[in-house]
Amino acid sequence: MTRTLTPPRPRRRLRAISLATVTAVVLAAGVAATSAQAAGSTLQAAAAESGRYFGTAIAANKLSESAYTTIANREFNMITAENEMKLDATEPNQNQFNFTNGDRIVSWARSNGKQVRGHTLAWHSQQPGWMQNMSGSALRSAMLNHVTQVATHYRGQIHSWDVVNEAFADGSSGARRDSNLQRTGNDWIEAAFRAARAADPNAKLCYNDYNTDDWTHAKTQAVYNLVRDFKARGVPIDCVGLQSHFNSQSPVPSNYQTTLSSFAALGVDVQITELDIEGSGSAQADNYRRVVEACLAVSRCTGISVWGVRDTDSWRASGTPLLFDGNGNKKAAYTSTLNALNGGSTPDPDPEPGDGCTVTVSRANEWGDRFNVSLAVSGSSTWRVSIGLQGAQSLQNSWNATVSGTSGTLTATPNGAGNNFGITVYKNGSTNLPTATCSVP
Ligand code: G2I
């Protein structure tokens, strides 16, 4: 059935506003359609459509396992060494550096056309024994020497370095974490960043931390203030890494996108650096979707890395927090992540040139009880789009297409208005973005 636009509020002034808003949405969809591209069929291809990367942590001792490297090579284009570039691994004895395993990871990544995130140059944890026992100016010099030597060894091969990791305390204090490094003086973080810039001027330099995802948390605000201060004083910093380790005690916050956009507004890139979300099935899939949608909504959120390949590779294996199960099968979380990277569309599993159409789906205006969804078809002027409403959602309105059905799966076909159309959906308890697939009848 074709539905005509009806105003969402009876009052005249509000009617004018809502019609103007809907007009803006339709125009915005027209702009989006010009850049719509074929859906990617791997995480790295789908992320690349919007100029982003999709990465994973890799363990050197698994590079000989083909089930592991097959998935890693196919799906990811940014590689982080899970442990092999940390302080205990790279400087086991003072001034004796060991890059064997870090180099194995870099060479695997680069020979497969991937980029590398460096993790990490200065951290209170995983210090070699000799460093744990140091303090004061001797420790400060040893830390700066470590930053310089490691960043120099990898100079020109690192996309972004986690220069300093986890330097703030948990809880409500907003204070620095107490550590031997912190006790060398509050300026240890900026000293580390300056040393890293001098050693590898082309790497992006990041501050990386966990529990910095909720915008209202004291730790998030403390990191924000550090970055703002560095930018104001010209201390070299290019990016903020949000580790984003989520579980039931630490869920994906509702204000996550606000956190990403607030950091980005300081003039730094934002990278999601160690994403994992404990859980299973559709709840886990939904959380991954929310994280990806938040990143895609912030232009300076430039990439997402998950912290391992399969659940069994995870530091939290019992929480099954990753995108592949222990047998290497794609989980529901994989599919929701891929679809979200593709802007809500489901990729054709067997694409051939000229064989159809693709549709991108995006969220637009939202009210208390309902929201608008913009759909943009590319690849064909004749099409049929199946729209999967989520939960108890139902159709209120549609424009620029003939839409049949009111709940569950809707079908949209052209009505002469072109390839960009929209619907208004009553939430009825679900704010999830409907899915859509396109076919040529
Ligand atoms: O703790 C999760 C991550 C939090 N953010 C910083 C990351 O660097 C950190 O990674 C984890 C690794 O995934 C674990 O693999 O860091 C842990 C140490 O803090 C790593 O665990 C260590 C074990 O503690 C060692 O016993 C083990 O020898 O992994 C080592 C290598 O498997």
TrEMBL record:
Active-site residue numbers: 274 (nucleophile)
Annotated GH10 domain residues: 37-340
Keyword Hydrolase: yes
EC category: hydrolase
Domain CBM2: 350-441
Keywords carried by this UniProt record: Carbohydrate metabolism, Glycosidase, Hydrolase, Polysaccharide degradation, Signal, Xylan degradation
SUPFAM superfamilies (alphabetical): (Trans)glycosidases, Carbohydrate-binding domain
Pfam families per record: Glyco_hydro_10 (PF00331)
Catalytic activity: Endohydrolysis of (1->4)-beta-D-xylosidic linkages in xylans
Signal sequence, start to end: 1-38
EC number, UniProt record: 3.2.1.8
Similarity comment: family membership: Belongs to the glycosyl hydrolase 10 (cellulase F) family.
Name of the protein this chain belongs to: Beta-xylanase
Classification of source organism: Bacteria, Bacillati, Actinomycetota, Actinomycetes, Micrococcales
